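Hi support team,

I submitted a single chain yesterday and got back a structure, but I'm not sure I'm reading the token output correctly. Could someone confirm the output below corresponds to the sequence I sent? I've pasted both exactly as they appear in my results page.

Thanks,
R.
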Amino acid sequence: MAESLLTSLLGMLDAHTVEGIAGSLGASGQSVSQGLKSSIAAVLGGMASKAEDPHALRTMLDLPSGVSEGTTLSQIAQAASDPNSPLMSAGKRLFSGLFGNSADAVTDAVSAGSGLRTGTASTLLSMAAPMVLSFISNRVRTEGMNMTGLGNLLQRESGAIRSALPSGLSDLFWPRQATTATPYPAATLPVQRRPSSPSWLPVLAIVALLGGLVWLFSQLRRPTPVRFGSTTIGTASRTADLGNLIKQKLPNGVYVNIPERGVEARLLSFIQNSGNTISEKTWFDFDRLSFDTASGQLRPESQEQLNSIAAILKAYPNVHVKVGGYTDNVGEADSNLQLSRDRANTVVAELVRRGISPDRLEAEGYGQQYPVGDNSTEEGRAQNRRVSMRVTQK
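Hi R., thanks for writing in. Yes, this is the structure output for that exact sequence:
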């Protein structure tokens, strides 16, 4: 039986290589050894947390690592003394692409667990990321594994991987099992209601009618945007059926795997069809973004869609987009406006980090303006918590 992924990778940490890395970084061999183990576990943990999503695993393995398959730690270690070397630069980009906005949290956890400085921990993670992905890619190829098979393997090993993670990362990678982190928007759960007294029915009917009239009048006071798709940012349990994954070839020869009814497919159709004219009312709702509660911090599961959107924008360099953030009407209007700005700016920053020129992007927050759902219901409020984009030039 083949060794586990974690055991095989940790077996590459021979004492000579570790001491060489420690010497280059000016740190103790024991701390570097622990830091490398934590870094390998962190990269594996990031993948294992996506074990049920074959497309996400494929996207991770397709990230440019800057190294060839089978590259060993000792080969990567030779570049550790020069943080600006092509190999280390590629490792940093790969690590950033894997973890996105969570990269700092991962680095801090490895630093705290090993006693290393944050910069040293970052270097070790930049070394571990290409090594782990190169190893897994080679394993997938030699064993003829597909992404479902890889996902099953990672699920079987997730217990050991989680045990090897530095403190705090298990909750970061598996937020549904955490008690302190709640995805935004939260998944809709069935609510147990007590039987209503029949005498309340007329009152409830009047309240519902008044709420509906208020919402209707608010809609009549503004132009209604044309929205492509009704899915909203949030967890998978509340995301509409986006259909099967399709492999789409872009004009620059790059392939993207995207849901057939997802925002990526709708954006592509709009760009490619010369009959579609640019309009201030034509917005595309992101359907697989997730933020921390009351925060502009994107959650790790958002990276897949951002990668696809960036790939599309790279393939169509003349296209410019505007990103808009929206909230429901819960809370203060000023706070909601700032939150919507933060989220729109975060999405733009993520696209810039993926190589899209800032000159092609614009961000604006609209707060609780322009609701597309009924704010008197949880379902409607969930629809109103969204991030959208509009093509401003193509």
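A quick pointer for reading it: Strands lie at 183-184, 226-228, 245-249, 255-259, 282-285, 291-292, 320-326, 361-365, 386-393. Let us know if anything else looks off.

Best,
Support desk
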